[in-house]
TrEMBL record:
SMART domains: AAA. PANTHER family: AMINO ACID ABC TRANSPORTER ATP-BINDING PROTEIN, CONSERVED COMPONENT OF ABC TRANSPORTER FOR NATURAL AMINO ACIDS-RELATED. This is ABC transporter ATP-binding protein. SUPFAM superfamilies: P-loop containing nucleoside triphosphate hydrolases. Gene3D superfamilies: P-loop containing nucleotide triphosphate hydrolases. InterPro entries: AAA+_ATPase (IPR003593), ABC_AA/LPS_Transport (IPR051120), ABC_transporter-like_ATP-bd (IPR003439), BCA_ABC_TP_C (IPR032823), P-loop_NTPase (IPR027417). GO terms for molecular function: ATP binding; ATP hydrolysis activity; L-isoleucine transmembrane transporter activity; L-phenylalanine transmembrane transporter activity; L-valine transmembrane transporter activity. GO terms for cellular component: plasma membrane. It comes from Amycolatopsis albispora. It comes from the Bacteria. One of its GO terms (biological process) is L-valine import across plasma membrane. Keywords: ATP-binding, Nucleotide-binding, Transport.
């Protein structure tokens, strides 16, 4: 797989005033692969996404996409190269409708206003927000905001999509369609997915491979069943909050 990696993260490190949020993290992801990222609160999961997508410059290490070095590049440039992330806390433009919020994200794609609108509406419908398309983003309930955040990223037609807890705050019935959509993105669009998630049932169902972070370091990586039966992972994460290993 190593020679075929689409995304290659090598020796990534980031400290905040002496706190090693991320230390020497290596990860290679093949095209169309789905990698789940788990670990306790503060393990460095979001920091990894920030470093990979340009929100933070890494102190050490490199990030390459399809052989192109994107280390320390701006989020814009990285998005144009095909790699986009969702935010854990979604902040839509509140004075805009759902479809207008999505259009804004797709603007850098050179399209006529009409095409941009049609494209954005199609994305809004794909994430199940069709009935909300012309309502203000502020009117959306939590589950709707999560879908809008997903739509915002999909409008950019990412080759690699990084999802930061897109299921958090959703009740089980609301999670199912999102999980189906993520599986469909890989099947139909060939999208490569990295997803940070605390809901283990989702991690087990979707991941080809799981990366476990603990205190900024890679604790384990492997097939979902392999990783979740690893005593070190149970010790550092799974054993700690059994209530979270729910549906
Ligand atoms: N911008 C920042 N400035 C200072 N410290 C930060 C910053 N971002 C993250 N940290 C710290 O780095 C560590 C890793 O944080 P990070 O957000 O990456 O964890 P996480 O694994 O995403 O946790 P969670 O599951 O709670 O989302 C934490 O101790 C956090 O407080
Ligand atoms: Mg986080």
């Amino acid at each position: 797989m190593a020679a075929m990696s689409l995304l290659r993260i090598s020796g990534a490190g980031k400290s905040f005033r002496g706190l090693h949020a991320l230390s020497d993290v290596d990860l290679e992801v093949g095209e169309g692969e789905i990698v789940g990222i788990i670990g306790p609160n503060g393990a460095g999961k979001t920091t990894l996404f920030n470093v990979v997508c340009g929100a933070l410059k890494p102190d050490t290490g490199t990030v390459t996409l399809d052989g192109r070095d994107l280390t320390g590049a701006s989020p814009d440039r990285i998005a144009r190269a095909g790699m986009v992330r969702t935010f854990q806390l979604m902040r839509p433009f509140t004075s805009m409708t759902v479809v207008q919020n999505v259009s804004l994200a797709a603007q850098h794609r050179r399209m006529s206003a009409k095409r941009l609108y049609e494209h954005s509406l199609a994305v809004v419908e794909r994430v199940g927000l069709g009935p909300w398309a012309h309502r203000l983003a502020t009117e959306l309930p939590t589950a709707g905001l999560k879908r809008l955040e997903l739509a915002r990223t999909l409008a950019m037609r990412p080759r690699v999509l990084l999802l930061d807890e897109v299921l958090a705050g959703l009740v089980p019935a609301e999670r199912e369609p999102v999980l189906d959509l993520l599986a469909e993105l890989r099947e139909q669009d060939g999208t490569t997915l990295l997803f940070i998630e605390h809901i283990m049932a989702a991690v087990m169902r979707l991941s080809d491979r799981v990366l476990v972070l603990d205190q900024g370091r890679v604790l384990a990586t492997g097939a979902p069943e392999e990783v979740t039966s690893d005593p070190r992972v149970i010790d550092a994460y799974l054993g700690e909050e059994p209530a979270r290993v729910d549906s």
